Structures are given as structure tokens and as C-alpha cells.
Amino acid sequence: MKFGVPMFPGFSTGRKIRLAYEGWLWFFAGMIHPNAIVAPGARVGANASVGAFAIVEDGVEVGENCRIAAMAVVKRGVVLAPDVWVDHHAVIGGLPQDLGFDESVESGVFVGRGTRIRESVTVHRATKPAHSTRIGEGCYLMAGSHVAHDCVVGSRVILANAATLGGHVHVGDAAFISGGVMVHQFVRIGEGVMCSGNGRFGMDVPPFVNALERNLVAGLNLVGLRRRGFSREVIANLKECYLAVYGDGAGGNLVAAAAAALEAGLAREPQARAFLEFFKADTLRQYVRPA
User: Is 167 a catalytic residue?
Assistant: First the structure.
């Protein structure tokens, strides 16, 4: 087989090249390829395309302008908002990896507008009836990343290659989960967090911070804050609140330090208040510790 030519056993090289070309043509033309399997009960919006050998099961809703590439699988109960792309070999809506799950439970996955799902990504459906694993708008799930059952992922979140979210994980808007990161079940990742590559997190990570290695935090995600256009006043107030919780004089009790800072009125900006209030939540996990 020549480099770049897909493997279709028994087909001539010319036929293989023509099939590959036709696959991309159908992908961008807003059509359903004749070799795609689209169940009669699936609803496919205007100008959406489904590539060769892709499978769209009964009960799936595909929004307008969606692109489902060749050999992708979109399973029952999935809702794709408009402009979502699902790349080759991705599987959306697979069964939860939960040994006690009852397969008869009717649940699903919701993917927000404009999200890009790259090759071999897996997103599993929720474990509770009438619930959905949720991914927000404008997210980018890179190749090989995984979103487990019952996760709630905010908007504009990036999951880099091989990043893995365990069940029931919550990820705030504009978080960046770097390559190889492992997030344990029920963990919360706050808004605007940067999780460094190959990090392991079994504790909650508050908003706007840099998280690294195993459950460690190392200051604010200043690069992300500036790129998002937050003012100097917002960043300065966030620094005050961060030091009130994680600084040398905070005493080590993160929850008590955050409560004291709130009581003292230290949070003058909404983002600073969100940082402190993160520590008030009823959670199953502890909080990341300073590096």
C-alpha cells in the first residue's frame, strides 16, 4: 500500500484513491454518503454531512452544518448542536464504563454548537435516566481524548491528546486540559484552569490557576487571563484572593481561608469572588495544594 492511500481490501489503487477523494467531497458538500448507515429514526439537519461507513443510530439528532466523518459512530441518545464536527473513528454516546450500569437506561450526550471532536475521541452517555453527558459550545477535543459518563464540560474547553476525564467530572469554561492529563471521577476543574501535561488530579482545582503534576497548584494562569482580555484590576484582585488562600500566611486550611477572605470583602471583582466561592461547594474531593 502506498503512503496516503487508504486500505480497501480487493480494490485497485485507483479505486482506493477515488474512494478517499469521494469521502472528503461528501464530508464538505453537506450530504449523506451512500455507504453511510443512517437509521430511519435519526434526524439530520440541513447541510449536514455523513461520511462513508459512518453510523448514525436511531434517536440521534444532528444539527445543521454538522460534519460526521467517515467511520465515526454517533449512538442513540446523542444530540449534536449545529456546526459540530465529529472526526474519523470517534465514538459519541457509547455505554458508560460502569460495571453496574443497566443498558436499558435511556440517557444521552449533548454536544454544543461549534465543538470539534477529533479522531478516536470517545464520549460516553450518562448513567441516569433522562440525563446527558454534556459538552459546551466551541470546545476542541483532540485525538484520543476521553470524556466519561455524566461529565459536564463548559464552553471553549480544550482537551489535548489523550486527556482523560473520569465519570462525573465538571470542567469550567475556557479550561485547558493538556495532553495525557488524568482527572479522577467527581473532580471539579474551575474556569480558566491550565492543567499541565501528564498531570494527575484527584482533588478539586479552583478557577484561574495553573495545576500540575499530582494535585499541585502553582499560581494563577496569567497567560490565559491576559489572552482572554481580563483587566489589570481583575488580575490584581485575583492575586490578592489567591494569596489569601494559598499564601504563606493562610495557615493551610484552604476552606477557612477562603471563607475569611469572603467575609472580609476581599473579592471586589466577579472573577475573584468566583475563585473564593469555589471553596464553599459541597464536594466529594479535597483541594489541590501549593507546589
Answer: yes
